[in-house]
Amino acid sequence: MKAMIFAAGLGTRFKPWTDRHPKALALVNGKSLLQRNIEYLQEYNITDVVVNVHHFAGQLIDAVEKNNGWGSNITISDETDEVLETGGGLWKAKDLLADNEPFLTLNADFLTNLNIEKLLEFHNDKKGLISFGVTNRKSSRNLLLDETNRLCGWVNNKTGEEKIPVFKPALISLAYSCVVVFEQAVFGLIPQRGKFSIIDSYLSLAAEHPIYGYDHSGDKLIDVGKPESVEVAERLFK
Fold first, then answer.
1. What is the number of domains present in the chain?
2. Average pLDDT over residues 221-227
3. What is the pTM of this model?
4. Contact, 154 vs 162, CB < 8 A?
């Protein structure tokens, strides 16, 4: 199984570190976010990993080479010319992810101990096109699921904006964990091109294709989005 770690972002919430470094190289108890996610994948014998780069791309490439991929086979997807966000970054890397199996994606700035084997079991049981982790934590934006955990929509909790392609009563609002299983068929279905968020693709596909949220509330999870979140991450991940 192959995986992709999204590490190309500008990290604007993580200044001043990201004025001189990519956020993926920020340290949590002496290990970079990128290293921690590579080692997390290794716990599940996933060692073929694509990493996309843009912001201070050279630093990320040097770190991978200096550390021999921390024991994994790392392939770089170069977005130096333009950062493409998660959806565009995934689309650009499609040939690097080609395989006869599903593939996994992670965000470099999320740390979790979600059990990937259980996520894959859930994905296979649901026969999903896409399955991703969700939890009941507080978040500015949530995904809306029905009673079977199928994706129906999205809501911005700050503005009240909603996007609900599948209308059902009593939707469950949960936060996205950024650990995602995709079937290879997704590349023939994603309608967007260029720079776009993968959430937009989920919402475009939700009405006609099985996309599910795997609730792993109670697991360790931290969005290392701001400098002050490092202290919390260091308590959770030694």
1. 2
2. 95
3. 0.97
4. yes
